[in-house]
Amino acid sequence: MTNGEGPVTGANTDTGTDWDAAAASFDDEPDHGLRDPEVSQAWASRLRSWLPERASDLLDLGCGTGSLSLLAAEQGHRVTGVDRSPAMVDLARAKLAGRDAAFLVGDAAVPPVGEERFDVVLVRHVLWTLPDPARVLRHWAGLLRPGGRLVLVEGVWGTISPVGIPADRLTGLLAPLVGHVRVEQLSDDDRLWGKAVHDERYALVARV
Fold it and tell me: Considering only CA atoms, which of 123, 92, 106 is closest in space to residue 23?
């Protein structure tokens, strides 16, 4: 869980949190559970603009309880979710029961998907916690089919000791790997977070 200035992280982060224990209350945060119709609609609208119009194979890394996976499935995409926490994965499976979705327990940095490739790799608030983001991005880009896209939701949180990854740094890391990068600022859309925020939050959509 986070305070007003802290980042929203998933179960693949190395923050000392017991994510299995946190799973039961994880969705209480407005932008985790997306239970508020306005928050859910705001994320659904953003996803629609980031994802392909046609039905696609989407890999949701650090998927948590599957809230973004559910929105993607509702838009017709075939979802594979990966999270390190078995409790989170159990909740995601229940949330998407009957949908075209599968969930795996594993490390988001090196997801256990074998030779399978995807049209989209979606990751929210995970990359900033990983020790070698450049290496991880190379691996994620390699999971994409030709013409596929990375959708990364990240930010920088806090003022005294800020944590996160700035958009310009992430853009630079991706430059050797992709053909086109678009950055979309998210801080000014209170509907996404269920409250006003004052830190840097953004989405980066990159096509290979």
Answer: 92
Q: pLDDT tens digit string along 128-154?
A: 989 999 999 999 999 999 999 999 999
pLDDT tens, residue by residue, 83-139: 999 999 999 999 999 999 999 999 999 999 999 999 999 999 999 989 999 999 999
Q: Which residues pair with 207 in a beta bridge?
A: 149, 180
Task: Compute the distance between CA of residue 190 and CA of residue 198 in angstroms, rounded to an integer.
Answer: 10
Distance between CA 186 and CA 8 in Å, rounded?
A: 14
> Which runs of E-coded beta strand occur in the chain?
57-61, 78-83, 101-105, 118-124, 144-157, 163-164, 180-185, 200-207
As a whole number of Å, the CA-based R_g of the chain is 15
Retrieve residue 50's tokens.
């980031």
Burial (Cβ within 10 Å: 0-12, 13-18, ≥19) of residue 171: middle
Whole-structure pTM value: 0.91
DSSP class of residue 126 equals: -
Q: What are the DSSP calls for 27-51, one per residue? A: TTSHHHH--SHHHHHHHHHHHHHHS
| Local structure of 75: helix, strand or coil | coil
